[in-house]
UniProtKB/TrEMBL annotation:
SUPFAM superfamilies assigned to the protein according to its UniProt record, in alphabetical order: FabD/lysophospholipase-like
Pfam families, per the entry: Patatin
Protein's recorded name: Patatin-like phospholipase family protein
Motif DGA/G, residue numbers: 159-161
GXSXG (motif): residue ranges: 43-47
Alphabetized Gene3D superfamilies for the sequence: Cytosolic phospholipase A2 catalytic domain
Active site per UniProt: 45, 159
Chain ranges of the PNPLA domain: 12-172
Xref: InterPro entries: Acyl_Trfase/lysoPLipase (IPR016035), NTE (IPR050301), PNPLA_dom (IPR002641)
Domain of life: Bacteria
Keyword terms, alphabetized: Hydrolase, Lipid degradation, Lipid metabolism
Amino acid sequence: MKIADTRRKVSLVLGSGGARGITQIGVVQRVEELGMEIEEVVGCSIGALVGAAYACDKLTELGSWMCKLTKAQVFKLMDFSNPRYGLFKGTRVLNTLQEVFDDVLIEDLSTLYTAVATDLRREEEVLFRTGSIYSAIRASIAIPGVFTGVSVDDRFLVDGGVLNPVPVNHVVNKENIVIAVNLDGIPLKDNGHIPKLNPVALLQESYYAMRRRLSTLMLSQYQPDYIVTVPHNSAGIWDFHRSSELIDMGYALAQEALKEIEGV
């Protein structure tokens, strides 16, 4: 077995990937079902949001809220911005999240929490381990061109997944069982054939391929104990109306990936 001792504490790394990240709620459900204690959460983008809900002991509430969303309700959450800076402001999303959990100081949480953003000016990662958890989420989810970036002092912060889609390198408690969720798995039914694409779709597929390689390199270098891999084309970036299905998918994928833990 990969884990030969009786460790029961987990450091959970939650990746970026839009609505695919809702699968991570199902992963947490399976980890807890196995009797493990999630002592630390590291997340970027949607992973920062799911991780924050867990750290605030509101993950069940987040899942319930997500499962009620329709396509129309998802669209209503989009507050359009000046397109020069990003399509959406992101303020309405965070304001609505107050129905699920309150803003708190990260340092007051009982779970060690890290949100990862990207400073585009310096081209480096920025870690949030103190301060407002909503500020951390807002910076970490700022997908370039979609949500407006966040200016803090002389930094310009965007989605943490730009430089690091699965931030396993920022785990603090490395003595724990480290479980990483990679939302950039090989697409389902991928036969290696590149279909005919228009220029925009070709650019998008090239970006996805780059993300997959970046995730693979990060996981190879830092080698978490277990990896739950979610196929890249399992959901589109805005498919939050499929949350119930995605949570179940995450649970099933975790059940397979973590089967060695049973009986530990």
